[in-house]
Amino acid sequence: MKRDVYLEDKPLEEALAEYMSHLDQVGALQPGESEVIPVEDAAGRVTAAPVYARSSSPHYHAAAMDGVAVRAADTFGASDATPKRLAVGERAVVVDTGDPLPPECDAVIMIEDVHFLDDITFEITAGAVPWQHMRVIGEDVVATEMIVPANHLLRPVDLGGILAGGVTEIAVHPRPRVALLPTGTELVQPGAELKPGDIIEYNTRVLGAMVSQWGGSPRRREITADDYGALKARLQEAVSESDVVLINAGSSAGREDFTASLIGELGRVLTHGVAIKPGKPVVLGEVAGKPVVGVPGYPVSAVLAAELFVKPIIYRKLGTVPPVPEKAEVIVSRKIVSPMGTEEFVRVKLGQVGDKIIATPISRGAGVIMSMVRADGILRVPRLSEGYNAGQTVPVELMRSLEEVRETTVIIGSHDITLDVLANHLRKKHPYATLSSAHVGSLGGLSALKRGEAHCAGTHLLDEETGDYNVSYIKRLLADRPVVVVNLVYREQGLIVAPGNPHGIRGVEDLATPGLGYINRQRGAGTRILFDFKLKQQGISPDDIRGYEREEYTHMAVAAAVASGSADAGMGIRAAALALGLDFVPVVEERYDLCIPVEYYDTPYIQRLLEVMAEPAFREEVRALGGYDLRDCGKIMYDSRG
Amino acid sequence: MKRDVYLEDKPLEEALAEYMSHLDQVGALQPGESEVIPVEDAAGRVTAAPVYARSSSPHYHAAAMDGVAVRAADTFGASDATPKRLAVGERAVVVDTGDPLPPECDAVIMIEDVHFLDDITFEITAGAVPWQHMRVIGEDVVATEMIVPANHLLRPVDLGGILAGGVTEIAVHPRPRVALLPTGTELVQPGAELKPGDIIEYNTRVLGAMVSQWGGSPRRREITADDYGALKARLQEAVSESDVVLINAGSSAGREDFTASLIGELGRVLTHGVAIKPGKPVVLGEVAGKPVVGVPGYPVSAVLAAELFVKPIIYRKLGTVPPVPEKAEVIVSRKIVSPMGTEEFVRVKLGQVGDKIIATPISRGAGVIMSMVRADGILRVPRLSEGYNAGQTVPVELMRSLEEVRETTVIIGSHDITLDVLANHLRKKHPYATLSSAHVGSLGGLSALKRGEAHCAGTHLLDEETGDYNVSYIKRLLADRPVVVVNLVYREQGLIVAPGNPHGIRGVEDLATPGLGYINRQRGAGTRILFDFKLKQQGISPDDIRGYEREEYTHMAVAAAVASGSADAGMGIRAAALALGLDFVPVVEERYDLCIPVEYYDTPYIQRLLEVMAEPAFREEVRALGGYDLRDCGKIMYDSRG
Question: What is its EC number (chains A, B) (predicted)?
């Protein structure tokens, strides 16, 4: 069972420089033959040649004001004391803005400065200076002058300048044709009925949208199975019909990863494996003078590899350069450990809390496309760094504008589905506002508040002594921090079980039954604390619960584990069970509050949320989820200021 | 002759707030009925509803690595000292990344950690932890979770998240349909044969491209003549078929400006006249619940009015907000006087010189579309300000990115056509580099160097005593500033005259002939100094030259004046005469140099220019212009360091 297990580990800068330089040498970065298009369709295109004016604008001496065109010499001497009378005729003509001046005239008097005595005769009280209130020939554009140079990205105003210069068609660089080849026996088209092992082929849709955004013209081909011969034929066809070819995936070194050997057979592999994470198994190749890139299969790897290696090719072929991404200096909220020798691209959520922008890393799996959907920015950990410490200031490349980041309410803490509903209603009411929630459990949320990383925390921490929620924890953990606690919802917690409850589970007491598998929440989660409390009440040891050590971070993930059959029960909220069509064994009603440091309470970050929480539309949608009670929603449950 | 001469002068904020609030009240800002489109076509669109996952991703437990799927319990106890042997079978299956795990398995061992003894038997030296190297169901997307909220602008990665969640079609806000109504008897379509008084109708092309850029769907109508009845019918039709209507122009208060009264008859005019410059004569109206904006006719006014009043409408109807323009703090290079009571939008060129970004205002005429084409940014002078002093720090909204501005070589001084050729070749060789030239004459250029506003100055100043060029002026004006002077070209200066030289002009000596009209260059221009020198040589007084006081800022503008017949002669370079098909009477060959402060000489700003000046392609193009000699092009003529 021979496998070519190891990939190269070439530093990013080296791989990129070497690849671009090779492509340059073989002419693969040259723009294609220019195409001539109507100017009015040219916004967003790039000029292939300088554009010179064919005619001047104005192309005649024009009145720049509504008024009377005169010969300036006829007006000399007019003043308040000695008004001058003139008569409309060959050398005094009423004109509107834009009218051509009669050949005898060389100035315009504004209509406001003209006093008509009758239909013909008018009086002026000041002389006109030659050429006043006129637009002379070529004032805007002079025939033959260069309006825009070559390799200029055309903006709407440029179209105006070019059309004003009498030009109606221009030469632009063609959009590079990019062939997208999805490969893999496991791939199915979106919308297909899914069998285990099927993977929805969405990567080339994402890559295609990226290519379009950069100015290229993507063309997605049919899915090719993992068959060397079929792939070879497909690649040869794509190379002959396109300017750039992306093969997705088969770019690693597995049993059915043919991309590298295929490119090697038909052309040349410059690099197979770059020291980046995600995105390592990328193939940088060239076939018949065309760039051919083997893009990795994991979606985050695919997006990153395309950003790093395909985007510069497209822009070079368009004779221009990529826009520079907006950057910001941010504070890392927690330690980020990254392997030495690899440049890592960490997706982060961002929010302005106080006067700092806080970056919180999100899932680092290359397979988690939602980490890109949820990311506000990308933090690069350089190849020769082992990461960052919490509190360190680092640069991030923004995926949302700084203004949007600044309008984001940051909530860190326990997860509840109503937060999604809240986020959605917030955005509907305030299009510029975002609710960004990170799920680290109730205790994690209170710690985040303590460290100044969030505007509020979602928390449902049961005090075993008093049976009350949250307040005793807050008093202890945030002793020196004045806060307001506002209720969001009451919700049912219980055991999520398979449909029909096949094991007849009645409560926590039944979970120690041999053969039953449990799925737990992570340490610090309110649900975990509740579960531990219930175990203690029942005198059950965690050791008796099979799967106690298996941790998930959200209610939905627990429900998904039960739905898949990998666990028989897990504690969570009713809404999660309902969402996946599972059964639910109620255990307790608990209080879920928002804990808000007073300094944020009166800011729009919080007041906007409270407004939305008061809206009937929000409340109805939450009630429809099931398992929620909103009797205290928006009510202040505790104010540490007394 | 009754005219409604005066417009309102409403402050911008007031006009905008009042208009948006009225439109909001009549429901004109609501998005249209949502449309359902395939996810793969949805990049750049805005969600009309939150998107929830239909299925989980992965939808089965998947191997996250190439390797062997095992039951973790079977591996316990394996170590280097006590390797464990397993056999491929029901509970140990070779898997590739993405393969489904067999039901009996709950972990994957990486292929690198497996030692096959034969085709079936393998050995491991470490136990597997349950769920290691697996992607469990829902790791990326959990069925029913919200993937993106409503009013979310979809990026390529979002399409991936949505497709991964099993969703193939989504509801998005429709693109607002924007009708563009060009009106005016003087308008002709681009490409038409031009008669005096004809104006090329390009405004609606520019507006259409802007609307598309914002996410709207523009539809340009036929040109309507200035006829109240015809306009009324056209407007009614447009209102019934569109979401927003722009009428261009007739928005002022002239004899044939019907826009305001028409909107008033069919609906309501909220504002007619806003205290902005350019853009004052704008009409903000509403007809049948649709926004109808009378956009001014001057192109810069049209662009600004659309930016200020139409853009926010389009974005509101898309459920989102406009991107915030990039801003920068810059230094104003010269005094800007702006009328109190009016908010002025001054177009500026920008360049980084030393550690400051310098803003140089360009033409302020509302009719000069090239002022927008050439602008790098817009400087707002607030309504209650009278302007800025030279050297003051002010904010500008950028029209080019700060990075591009930073890569711009700023040349201020005398105008020569070869600078356009140089700019074009520079951009071809360095797609990120720009040559920005401001034309203020040779002396103006040296002053700009003195004030630290440019990287170099173009200069051709004749020393009347020595007959030499530039150096004596530089020694005097830049005494304490070490500079290098590099020759660009020698060029012929002479008199530009009508084709066939109808007045038989042989030289400067003939210009005092009665009846001849001259067109001059501005004070401080090298050509003006040369002309004055020649007059003195001939013993002619400026008073004897009719038109001596008429000043233009470029050779091409002088040539245009001669071409139009408004002047019989003007001094300038041969290339300008050739470009407009005029005749040329040579007077002198002069030297045109670049004066470069030594601190910029070795920077890319200058070295890139010198590189391009050495290229045969650049030189051939300059020679083809006619009247140029490149014998010293690129040669150092003077180095003040000795």
Answer: 2.10.1.1
Helix (H, G, I), strand (E, B) or coil at B623: helix
For residues B334 and B224, state if they share a domain: no
Same domain, A194 and A340: no
The answer to the question of residue B491 being in a domain is yes
C-alpha pair distances (Å), B216 with each of A43, B254, B307, B621: 14, 31, 13, 42
Please indicate whether, in this complex, the C-beta atoms of B138 and A168 are within 8 angstroms of each other.
Answer: no
Is B634 inside any structural domain?
yes
In chain B, positions 111-140, which contact chain A (CB-CB < 8 Å)? 111-112, 116, 119, 130-131, 135-140
Average pLDDT over residues A385-406: 93
Q: Would B302 be classed as within a structural domain?
A: yes
* Residue B465, pLDDT score: 87
pLDDT at residue B521 tops 60 = yes
A458 and A522 assigned to the same domain: yes
Question: What pLDDT is recorded for position A4?
Answer: 52
Residue B428 to chain A, least CA–CA distance (Å) = 6
The reply to whether residue A119 touches residue B1, judged by beta carbons under 8 angstroms, is yes
Give A228's contacts (C-beta < 8 A, 6+ positions apart). A258, A261, A262
Domain boundary among A79, A109, A135: A135
Tell whether A465 and A609 lie within a shared domain: yes
A1 falls in which pLDDT band (50, 70, 90)? very low
Q: Do the chains contact at A370 and B141, CB–CB below 8 Å?
A: yes
Could you tell me if A356 and A402 lie in one domain? yes
Distance CA B477, CA B463 (A): 13
Helix (H) or strand (E) holding A266: helix A259-266
CATH number for the domain including A360?
2.40.340.10
pLDDT of residue B2: 40
In a domain, B425, yes or no: no
> Nearest-5° angle of CA B331, CA B336, CA B339?
140
Segment A300-320 mean pLDDT: 97
Query: A176-190, A524-538, B227-241: lowest mean pLDDT where?
Result: A524-538
Quick one: B127 and B270 in the same domain? Answer: no
* Minimum-distance CB partner of A369 among B157, B423, B560: B157
Say if residue A615 is in the same domain as residue A565. yes
Phi first, then psi, for residue B531 (nearest 5°) are -65, -45
Write out pLDDT tens, residues B53-63. Answer: 999 999 998 99
CB contact under 8 A, A163 and B560: no
Please say whether the beta carbons of B81 and B126 come within 8 A.
Answer: no
CATH number, domain of B546, equals: 3.40.190.290
Q: How far apart are the CA of A32 and the nearest CA of chain B, in angstroms?
A: 15
- B190-230 per-position pLDDT tens digit: 999 999 999 999 999 999 999 999 999 999 999 999 999 99
Together in a domain, B470 and B595: yes
Sign, Cα dihedral of B149, B150, B153, B155: positive
Q: Report the residue of B109, B326, B373 to disrupt the A interface, i.e. the one with the largest count of A CBs within 10 Å.
A: B373
A203-235, pLDDT tens digit by residue? 999 999 999 999 999 999 999 999 999 999 999
Considering only CB atoms, B564 lies closest to which of A61, A199, A423, namely A61
Classify residue A615 by its DSSP letter.
-
Residue contact A40–B190, C-beta within 8 A: yes
pLDDT value at A251 more than 90? no
What is the percent of chain A with per-residue pLDDT over 70, rounded to a whole number? 99
Q: Can you give the residue range of the structural domain that contains B244?
A: 12-30+175-317
User: How high is the ipTM of this complex?
Assistant: 0.91
Residues A96, B57: C-beta atoms closer than 8 Å: no
We report the CATH number of the domain holding residue A101 as: 2.170.190.11
Name residues 135-174 of chain A within 8 A of B (Cβ): 135-152, 155-161, 163-164, 166, 168
Report how many domains make up chain B.
5
Of the candidates B247, B249, B223, B225, the residue with the CA atom closest to the CA atom of residue B236: B247
Instruction: Test A97 with B152 for CB contact under 8 angstroms.
Output: no
Chain A residues in contact with B71 by the CB 8 A cut-off are none
pLDDT at A5 over 70: no
Q: Which residues of B touch A152 (CB under 8 A)?
A: 427
Shortest CA distance to A561 belongs to which of A537, A577, A538? A577
